Amino acid sequence: MKKHIPLALRIIVAIILIQTLRFKFTAHPDSVYIFETVGLEPFGRIGIGVLELIAGILLLIPKTVWLGASITIGVISGAIFMHLTKLGIDINNDGGILFFTAVATFVLSAIILYIYRKDIPFINK
């Protein structure tokens, strides 16, 4: 059972990251609004989407889980910061779903990184 929990966490975070890509890559009005508000439309929207795609893939490859979790923490930290400074918690009356999903993704990624800390090559050599 213990070995299945880290895998489940990795899959959950990868699904969260990858499912948001359709909004970023198709220029969904909500995604465009968010990135316009923070001054990163369109290059930030697409660039962050690419980073999230890379992180999602890396989370699913056993040798690169630590890197995927690290990238996720970095990207999601930016999202949380933007929510707290420019966007607010509730975007377009979503009830805070985007913000709370970002927080959950951050926490799960931190747990994943902790679990796979021994795999980080430049720390454990």
Overview features:
125 residues, 6 helices
Please count the beta strands (DSSP E, at least 2 residues each): 0
Structural class: mainly alpha
Compute the separation of the termini in Å.
Answer: 29 Å
Helices and strands, in N-to-C order? HHHHHH
- Give the strand content: under 5%
Instruction: Please state the CA-atom Rg, rounded to the nearest Å.
Output: 15 Å
How would you state the average pLDDT, rounded?
A: 95
Largest sheet: none
Number of helices: 6
Anisotropy-based shape:
elongated
Number of domains: 1
In helices, the fraction of residues equals over 70%
Could you explain how this protein is built, in words?
The protein has 125 residues and is mostly helical. It has one domain (4-119). The chain is built from six helices and no strands. It has helices spanning 4-19, 21-25, 29-37, 43-60, 65-87, 97-115. Helix 1 packs antiparallel against helix 4 (43-60) and helix 5 (65-87) packs antiparallel against helix 6. The longest helix is centred in the middle third of the chain and has 23 residues, at 65-87. This is DoxX family membrane protein. It is found in: Membrane. Its main location: membrane.
